[in-house]
Structure formats: C-alpha cells, structure tokens
User: Fold this.
Amino acid sequence: MKIFNSDVILGIVVIAGAAVYLWADSRLPVAAMADPLGPKAFPVLVGCGLILSGLILLAEGRKKYRTASGTTHRRRVDMRQVATLCGMLAWTVLYYATFDSVGYLIGTPIFIFGLLCHFHRGKHLVNGLIAIGFTAVAYALFSLLLHVPLPTGPIPI
Amino acid sequence: MESLHGILHGLAVAATPEHLLYTLIGTFIGTMISHLPGIGPSAGIALLIPVTFGMDPSTALMMLAGIYYGCMYGGAVTAILLNTPGDAAAVMTVLDGYPLARKGRAAATLAIAAVSSFIAGTIGVTALAFIASPLAAFALHFGPTEYFGLIFFALSTVSALTGDSLGKGLLATFLGLGLATVGIDLQSGVQRFTLGLVSLQDRVNFLIVVVGLFAIAEVSRMVEGTMGGTLHTVKVKGRLWFTREDWRRAYPAIFRGAGVGFFCGAAPGLGGTIASMLSYILEKKISKHPEEFGHGAIEGVAAPEAATNADTCGAFVHLLALGVPGSGATAVIMGAFIMFGIQPGPMLFQTQPDLVWGLIASMYIGNMMLLVLNLPLVGVLARILYVPPGVLLCIILGIASAGVYSFNYDSFDLFLALVFGVLGYAFRKLDIPKAPLLFGLILGHTLEQSFRQALTISNGDAFVFVQSPICAFLLFCGLVSIGASLWARRQPATVLDEAKGRVAAESHSG
Assistant:
C-alpha cells in the first residue's frame, strides 16, 4: 500500500473521471443540422487530455516514490480543523437551502452570528452587532443601490 | 504615433470626475484587499464585480483594473510587516523586506516598495500602450486557425509553468476546458453534460467559479490560520523615507525589475511570482553584496516589487490586444468584459477606442493615486491587519453569497459556488494550481469554436493547423514550453522555496 501516494490516487481518480466524461460524450445525440465535426469531437480531445494528465500524475507519483526511496510523506491531519470545516460547510449548506424561504434579512444575520460565535468567541454583543450591521449594509448595497432582488422571505417589503 | 494619440485621448477620457473617482475607489479597495491575508486580486475583483452592475463599462473596468494593480501594489505591506505576502507575487519581498522591518527600517522599506511600484507601473503602462496597439493591428489578420494556435500556446504555457507539477497543471487546464463544454452547444443546439439541470444549460458562469475557487476556498485557509499559529506584526516606525544610499542601490534594480516583470507579464502563464523570483535572482547574481540578500538588502525589495507591478501591465497586453488573459486576475477581468457584452481582442482598439485607451490611461492616474495613498496612509492602512481573521472570514462568506446570488438571482448558483469552494480547498491541499482552470474555462469556448471553424473551412483536413505559419509557430512554442518544463523542472525555484519556507516557518513558530 506504500506506493499509493496522493499523486497516484489523484491520477487514478482523474483517469476514471475522464472515462465517465468520454462515456457521457459518446451518448450525446448527433444533430442533423450541426457542423461536420459536431458537438462530440471537442469533448473527446478534452477527455483524452484528462487521461494524459492522469497518466503524467501516475508517472510523477512513481518518480516521487522512487526518489523518496519507498517512503511517503504523510501530512498531519488536524481533526479539529477538519471538524470545524465540515461544520462550517453544513451551516453554509443550511443557509443556502433556506436562502429563498427564510429571506436574506433573517437568514444572513443568523448565519453570520452562528459563524462568529465559533470564530470570534465570547463577544456575543459585538458579534450580534457585526451580524446585523453587515446584513443591513449588504442589503442596502445590493437591494437598494444595485437593485438586486434579494429574497425577502416572510418579511413583507 | 498612433499610440501617443491614443494615450492623450485616453487621458482625456480617464480624467473626467466620474472616472477619477472610480479609479480612486478601485485602487483604494485593491490596496485594502492586499492587506487581507488570503484574499488575492482574483477573488477581490470577482467579489466586487456585482457592485459594477449598472455602471458604465468603462467606469467599471477602470475600477476593476484599479483593484488589480492596487492589490499588487499593496501586497508588499503584509510581506514587509507581517512576513506574509498579501498576494502570491509578493512572496519574494518577504526575503529582505521582513528582515529590514525587524531592523527598525519598516517605514523606509515600505517607501522604497511604493516608489519601486510607481516607477515600474508607469514604465509598464507606457510599454503596454506602445505594444498593445500594433499587436492588435497584427492580430486583425488572425483567422480561426491562428486563434486556435494562440489559445493552445497560452494554455500550454500556463499548464507548464504554473505550479510544481506538469500533470497537475494539465489536469487543471483540462478540467477548465471540460467545464467550458457544459451547456447547450450553440452550433448544434445539443445539451452537453448538464445533468438535466436547467441552470447549467447556459454554461457554467465563470464568475461563480472564480468566487468559489478563490473567495470561498480561501475562507478555509483563514479557518486554518485562525486555529493555527499567530501572526507577528512589525510596527511601522522610523522615518517614512529612504536614504540617499538606499536610492543609489535601489534605482538600477527598479529599472531591471520593471523590464523583467513586463516581459514575464506579456508571456501568458508566467505571472507575477515568476517575475519577482527572476528579478530577485538577477539582482542577487549581479550584486556586489550578494551575501546581504536574505538578510535585508534594499535591492531585494525594490526589484521584486518593480517586477510584480510591471508584470500587471504586461498581463494586459494579451488581454486587450489578443483577447487572451495573461494571468488569473486578468482572466477575471476578461470575465467582466464579457459580462458587459464586450469581447476583448484586436477589434477592441477599433470598436471601443474610448474604453481601451481610457483604461490604459487610467492606469497612469491610478499609479499616481497609489503613491499618494500608500506613502502617507501606510500606517493607517496597516491597521486592517489587526481585524480578527475570524470576523473577516464571516464577512467574506457573506459578501460572496450575496455577490453570487446577484449574478442570476438563482439560489442554485450559491450551491454551485460552494461546490467550487470545496474544489478549491481540494486544489490547495493537493497543490493543484487554480489559474489554469480559469484559463481553460474562459478560453475553452473560443478554442472549441476556432477548432471547429478551422476544420470546417478545411473540409476536415487537420494539417490546416500546420499550414498556417503563425499557427504552426504558436503550436511549436506551446510544445517547447511543455518540453522545457519537463527538461528543467523548477531549477531556479530554490529561491522561491526559500521564501515560501521562511513564510511557513514564521507562521508556525508562533
């Protein structure tokens, strides 16, 4: 298992992805009115290029393995950071999923305040003011000044 | 002569109160962005593109260009005071800038960086004005075959020279090209790789990809920074001007750095980091005091700063004259051009002389504004460094979300940006360069059209690409750049590694 460094794994994933891309390209319909080359030709070149880059990654991975005389450098993974990033991702997905229904003016301060509670701990009053202040400024800029119709949710504006 | 008339005409356009105001806003925002560790020019421009909705295109592009060169200008501040480059290109400034600051010469070092940037920026804009127009006139003769060769050259150079691995550079480029094939094919009407999603029929929005890859992904870096080490800021103290001896040593380095930087910028894919690295190596090689480099040589600040700023102007040569971006940030600016319905390229000088010459002339004015802004306000601007990263990352996420929504008023785009944010995080962890993906995405459509048109005209004869001398030459140059990168893989990168190593060591020592 030592041989599987990150470049080799990446190379294998890229080749597999390129195969799926080429398979999807082969299933595209051919339009009768299209140009002689059609919509399939260029993606074939891109797919072949992806396979080529995957093969180069495999070769580079092998070379790294050899020059490192069989040892691979393992990066230390900070599980606390990973957990924080996953939590942040989930919180962002929830914010985006409710973006239309909850509305910008309600969803954004809750989202920002939630993040600040973790990244700027113990300063709840300041965090609350930042969350509300940011939302007000961003809403004024985008909705009132730039006329971007940000979702209002249940607030009748 | 035509260029001189163009500059004078451009100055008249750029000197209107509205254009002056937005150039000032752009340069100021760019300087502020450069003070925020993690947010580079590409992300900064992409985040602010929504603000330009409804603006006159000339005004908007002057502001966005101002953000770009303002960012490059101010990147030195964090490099000198914080030992952390404000943008990737300022990494070489760390080597001598930070030691000088620790010797109590922070103010003088910042002053020499500002003056170097101003002189090199002015030289760069002048060179841009005199080169872009004739190049555009020459490019008017380009057909689809030549455009295919040109884009092939740009993509192969950026794949070969960006990052530490050819495989990863090519992977990013082909991923970008693959993304460019998503959506309805305009020639046949066939839906390609849309996964049945209506929102993807109109292709993947370039600006959403940029916000995801750069802004949202960079938030993850800030999270790691917040939870990792601490940053040690050197206070700005001492006389805010340099000595006669400093100037005597710095000014030849500034002119050499400007030359190296402009040529690196004009070659697509080389970018500011390589420009600053080459100029640093050059100065060290020809210096009478090479032993001082790395310990506080003033030339080690002047040359890379000059190169970085001249590189910015060089990157605009391709964008304005050929419609091919010269760097990641100019790729984002090209996205803004397209958003305004303007196709950059050789016709731009014919169809939009006010815009193109106004934009070039605004760079002269912007450079002067930056000098005036940076010298007296450096102490004030440096206070941005004390904004807690935890607060900053929340604000960046908030701006990115509202900005992405404003492109199409579609919450699907938010998820798309998040997907690209995760992809950007994976790219960073796997050391895959992001700029080639941007190049592939923004040039992919033109590359495919040129490829299909050339083969349609030649009745499917693939030799058409080598029958045109220009195309054959460009294809040859592209292959040479890939071959060269395979042959001499990053030999001069030892100096760059030294700079990156020092940044990493300092950030972990806390």
Notes: Chain B touches chain A through 60 residues (CB under 8 Å).
